[in-house]
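Q: what does this look like with SN-glycerol-3-phosphate bound?
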Amino acid sequence: MLRPDDIHQGAGFRRVTMEAVNPTPDSKKLAHPAPFAPRIFADTATLSDIRPLKEGGIINGVTTNPSLMKRAGAKSWNGALKIMQEIVDYMAPAPVSLELTELQPEKMVEQAKRLAGMGTNVVVKVPTGGYQAIDKALDPFTGLKVMRELWKHDIKVNATLIFNSTQAFWAANAGATYVSPFLGRLADYLYKHDQPEREPGNSLHFLEDHKAPEGGRDITANTPYVANDGLRKDSGVRLINEIVVVFNNYRITTEVLAASFRNASQMAECLLAGADILTVPAPILMGVADHPLTFEGMKAFVEDAKVFEK
Ligand code: G3P
């Protein structure tokens, strides 16, 4: 887990400057205890996954991307649009992120307007960078330029594929409403390429070597840099806190939408790190009310309660 010392506490102040997620209506006597809770989104394009989560009050938004669309069965852009429209309608008025697939700025803006026209709850997902990985002739600032343009058109943007806090800063500067740091992919990457000399992202400066004690076995629990059964797997979560601190420093109201989750522990860590929104795959969300000891405890309570039936 992150150590308390690692977590910048500016996050708490930041939340209360934002719109309450659970406001208490004037008619209510009992105030809602968690007005400034982070929002939780489902990271999926599969409506059958979304339904039980929405009905259970677990989610208040959805994020999609082209890979999730393909996984949901879309075989063409028209097929993807159909799936998108169903999700947008089902979730309204809660936000649904739909990702651009065009790569030329004018076409991206045109596509963004088409997507935004699907519902007032649509947020357009724009890849922040990476354009030159597709074509060297593309402008490296394509994503940022499109974000700025969409802000001018009052279209909400979710800046995606973020792996360091400077990308997050520039996306916010361009007018993005949300930034999506992919903590799971970063943690996977660092786990696979765990060499001190490598510096793939600026979140690495948080890391220190964790060495097994002389003659002892490597301890993978309760060490500062271990989140989930492996060395340095919490690094993605540190990035979340880093972005929260940067935004807090400059009163940036762009929301930090932590994405690319691999397990429930990363959710807990993102809450510690001050994420504004967590977008989580459905299988992880389906387990949020459970724990092996909760199962055991429930069985015992139900068994003991049988005495009252007599
Ligand atoms: O929202 C972004 C997310 O879908 C990426 O997740 O699991 O492909 O790294 P993943």
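Confidence is low (pLDDT under 50) at residues 195-213, 216-233. Residues 43, 63, 65, 68, 180, 182, 184-185, 259-260, 279 surround SN-glycerol-3-phosphate (CB under 6 Å).
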